């Protein structure tokens, strides 16, 4: 069955910064049944921030970080369904953060996923994917079908 | 566009009704046969939850959604994260706190 995946930025980071346990995320995205991956525009900034931090720590070179930025930007703009951060979404995220007791960025991802899911996907055709247990629980509490990677 | 025609017996339908209904929701013409004779046709109702492709086309109409089909494979280069320190995912979670 065809699927849409909403990827939390934690998952996207592991697609590009290969490390232990990246394999599960890569396999998930490369599943031929996945039609599109969705994420908030917030993810672009979050993932670039990780790359900057990795370069500052000397865990990747500056040259690698520049190459990554080009590659990641291309992928984000052409291969991912990215969802703009809008005022109405921010307001929904604020309400969600308060009602579920979650962090602001988590709430913004959840708001974007909820908006996408409301387009009417079958329950298991839209999957919210994250490495964050707290965010996964919040997503499940709001009725989003969720997969937690470990 | 020509849709796929599928026929299931009542027994096949009863073994996995969810799969059969999903196929109908994905646009297949699904018929249930009783003793080898076509008896029932499954037709999705307007507003029923849809398959991924259908949802994607709905998302295209929403403001702020930039829809893209996933290209095969991931772009290169990817980079191996060396040395001690938090994982890429943990770095993002730390940034959020």
Topology:
The complex is a heterodimer of chains A (150) and B (97).
Chain A: E1 3-7, H1 9-16, E2 17-18, H2 22-29, E3 34-40, H3 42-56, H4 62-78, E4 80-83, H5 87-100, H6 104-117, E5 126-130, H7 133-141, E6 146-148
Parallel strand pairs in A: 1-3, 1-5, 3-4, 5-6
Helix pairs in contact in A: 1-2, 1-3, 3-4, 5-6
Chain B: E1 5-9, H1 10-15, H2 17-25, E2 29-34, E3 37-42, H3 52-60, E4 65-66, E5 79-80, H4 88-96
Parallel strand pairs in B: 1-2
Antiparallel strand pairs in B: 2-3
Descriptive report:
- The complex is a heterodimer of chains A (150) and B (97).
- By secondary structure, chain A is of the alpha/beta class.
- Chain A is 57% helix and 17% strand.
- Chain A has 7 helices and 6 strands; from the N terminus they run βαβαβααβααβαβ.
- Chain A has helices spanning 9-16, 22-29, 42-56, 62-78, 87-100, 104-117, 133-141; strands spanning 3-7, 17-18, 34-40, 80-83, 126-130, 146-148.
- A 5-stranded parallel beta sheet of chain A has the order 4-3-1-5-6, sandwiched between helices.
- In chain A, helix 5 crosses helix 6 (104-117).
- Chain A is globular and about 40 Å long.
- Chain A starts with a strand and ends with a strand.
- With 97 residues, chain B is of the alpha+beta class.
- Chain B is built from 4 helices and 5 strands; from the N terminus they run βααββαββα.
- Chain B has a 3-stranded mixed beta sheet with strand order 1-2-3.
- Chain B is elongated and about 65 Å long.
- At the A-B interface, helix 1, strand 2, strand 3, helix 3 and helix 4 of A face helix 3, strand 4, strand 5 and helix 4 of B.
- Strand 4 of chain A pairs antiparallel with strand 4 (65-66) of chain B, so a sheet runs across the interface.
């Amino acid at each position: 069955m065809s699927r849409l995946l909403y990827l939390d930025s934690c998952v996207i980071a592991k697609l590009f910064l290969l490390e232990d346990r990246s394999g599960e995320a890569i396999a998930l995205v490369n599943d031929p049944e996945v039609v599109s991956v969705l994420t908030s525009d917030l993810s672009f900034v979050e993932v670039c921030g990780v790359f900057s931090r990795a370069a500052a720590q000397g865990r990747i070179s500056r040259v690698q970080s520049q190459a990554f930025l080009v590659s990641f930007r291309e992928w984000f703009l052409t291969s991912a369904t990215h969802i703009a951060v809008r005022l109405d979404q921010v307001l929904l995220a604020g309400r969600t953060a308060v009602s579920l007791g979650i962090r602001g960025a988590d709430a913004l991802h959840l708001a974007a996923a909820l908006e996408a899911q409301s387009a009417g996907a079958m329950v298991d055709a839209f999957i919210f994917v994250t490495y964050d247990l707290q965010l996964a629980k919040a997503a499940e509490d709001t009725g989003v079908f969720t997969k937690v990677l470990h | 566009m020509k849709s796929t025609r599928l026929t299931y017996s009542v027994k096949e339908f009863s073994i996995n009704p969810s799969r059969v209904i999903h196929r109908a929701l994905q646009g297949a013409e699904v018929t249930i046969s009783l003793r080898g004779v076509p008896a029932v046709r499954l037709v999705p109702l307007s507003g029923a939850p849809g398959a991924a492709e259908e949802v994607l086309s709905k998302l295209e109409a929403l403001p702020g959604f930039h829809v893209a089909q996933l290209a095969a494979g991931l772009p290169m280069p990817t980079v191996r994260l060396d040395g001690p320190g938090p994982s890429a995912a943990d770095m993002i979670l730390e940034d959020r706190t």
